[in-house]
Specification:
Elements lengths: L2 E4 L2 E7 L1 H18 L6 E6 L3 H10 L5 E11 L6 E6 L9 E9 L3 H11 L5 E9 L12 E5 L5 E2 L15 E4 L2
Parallel strand pairs: 3-4, 3-6, 6-7, 7-8
Antiparallel strand pairs: 1-2, 2-10, 4-5, 9-10
The chain binds guanosine-5'-monophosphate (5GP) and magnesium ion.
């Protein structure tokens, strides 16, 4: 079993690149069917989604656009704590078919926030795609249209996902050793 260390934590290989790429290809093929003639705008959430998106795009054969955003935290007024907001979206989404591309849905809070914020700009429809989904961690009501891989509730790195900024470059997905 391939093992690595990132900073203070040890990880072991969990999902190999070939399997990840195959799972992405499957959802791309579904998107090619579902979104044909809809001129979709894909909105990829950086940083984590970059490898997922790179692989997905290679298999999309329909006309589409892609835009990259970030969820940036800023300190709310007074003691309301951190507020996360979409940053970097320049396209007009009114009336359009939107597909959000995320690295992972864990509790679902981030995705719910993104959906709420985009809904304010009157898109035609919004679909949600994620590379990874932890069903046991979900705490919000969320409809996920495209899930490449379901995983258990363990902390993972690789294929775009990081531990404290590191590990995004790993081609396989690793899970933390317990
Ligand atoms: P949620 O809002 O669904 O709880 O999670 C959102 C964010 O938490 C993800 O976009 C990701 O940045 C981070 N996250 C959740 N689970 C993991 C994990 O297992 N590994 C890594 N690297 N990040 C995670
Ligand atoms: Mg993310």
């Amino acid at each position: 079993m391939k093992e690595i260390k990132i900073k203070d934590k040890e990880f072991e290989v969990f999902i190999q690149e070939e399997k990840i790429r195959e799972a992405i290809k499957v959802i791309a093929q579904r998107m090619n069917k579902d979104l044909e003639g809809k001129d979709p705008l894909f909105i990829a959430v950086l940083n984590g989604a970059f490898m997922f998106v790179g692989e997905l795009m290679k298999h999309l054969t329909i006309p589409c656009e892609i835009s990259f955003v970030r969820m940036a935290s800023y300190q709310g007024i007074k003691s309301t704590g951190k507020i996360k907001e979409i940053y970097g979206l320049e396209e007009d989404i009114e009336g359009r078919t939107i597909v959000i591309l995320e690295d992972i849905v864990d509790t679902g809070h981030t995705m719910s926030l993104i959906l709420d914020q985009l809904a304010c700009d009157s898109p035609g429809e919004i679909k949600v795609a994620t590379l990874l989904f932890k069903p046991d961690a979900l705490k919000t009501e969320l409809k996920l249209d495209y899930v490449a891989l379901e995983i258990p509730n363990d902390f993972i790195v690789g294929y775009g996902l990081d531990y404290d900024g590191y590990g995004r470059n790993l081609a396989d997905i690793y899970k933390i050793k317990s």
